[in-house]
Design goal:
The protein is of the alpha/beta class and 217 residues long. Helices cover 36% and strands 19% of the residues. It has eight helices and nine strands. The chain has a five-stranded parallel β-sheet. It has a two-stranded antiparallel sheet with strand order 1-7. Helix 6 (175-186) runs parallel beside helix 8. The two termini are 30 Å apart.
Length: 217
């Protein structure tokens, strides 16, 4: 029986030849990230695990992009926690103020994720990177904490919905319009815990910016 790209990627990272939708697996993670809202929680949880350092200081990104510059003392404290953690563990991809950008454009722009990867982030829009032909998903801060320590996490293998788009887009119509139309058709929870695959001649003609936009939503 064939597998979707999501199944193939997850199977490879779980050391398996085949995985079934609905199956619970443990898989290696190629890259992970947190921002200034979610990372401080993960950092505090990481401190409770009992390990001395992160599994790989080059495969974690900390991006303080929600409150940059900090809007108040509480926001500044959040960034301070991230900065101290990054320095303590030698996090290579710590994006300090002045170097930072919107996390979901910054990570691909820096070439930190590539096709075939498994990527997690403590942010619901982490699925953006699927535009590159990899598997990416948002997770909770506690899951991020465990992954920073172990380099792996658990997944329930998702079912896949295939969306085929035909025809040429009209003037001023782009990826944002396609995904809003699609969401309107299936509903905001129409692909809950599913992998969405976008294919067809319309998608093939889309520039990468539009593909990122579709996956981001």
């Amino acid at each position: 029986m064939g597998q979707t790209i999501t199944q193939k990627i997850l199977a490879a990272h779980a050391g398996r030849d085949f995985v079934e939708p609905g199956e619970l697996i443990s898989a290696k993670v190629d890259f992970m990230l947190g921002n200034d809202i979610t990372a401080p929680i993960a950092i505090r949880e990481f401190g409770q695990i009992g390990v001395e350092t992160v599994f790989d200081n080059e495969r974690i990104a900390l991006v303080p992009d929600h409150y940059t510059p900090a809007k108040d003392m509480k926001a500044a404290q959040q960034v301070k926690e991230m900065r101290e953690f990054a320095r303590r563990h030698g996090i290579v991809n710590w994006f300090e103020v002045g170097r930072v950008g919107i996390e979901h454009t910054l990570i691909p722009d820096e070439g930190l994720v590539v096709p075939g990867d498994v990527v997690i982030g403590a942010d619901s829009h982490t699925c953006t990177y699927g535009a590159l032909g990899l598997f990416s998903t948002g997770v909770g801060s506690t899951d991020l904490a465990a992954a920073m320590a172990l380099g792996e996490t658990w997944f329930r293998v998702p079912e896949t919905i295939k969306f085929v788009y035909y025809g040429k887009l009209g003037e001023w119509v782009g990826g944002k319009d396609l995904i809003l139309y699609t969401i309107g058709k299936i509903g905001v929870d129409g692909a809950l815990y599913c992998s969405m695959e976008f294919v067809g001649e319309t998608i093939s003609a889309l520039p990468m910016a539009d593909r990122f936009t579709m996956c981001n939503m």
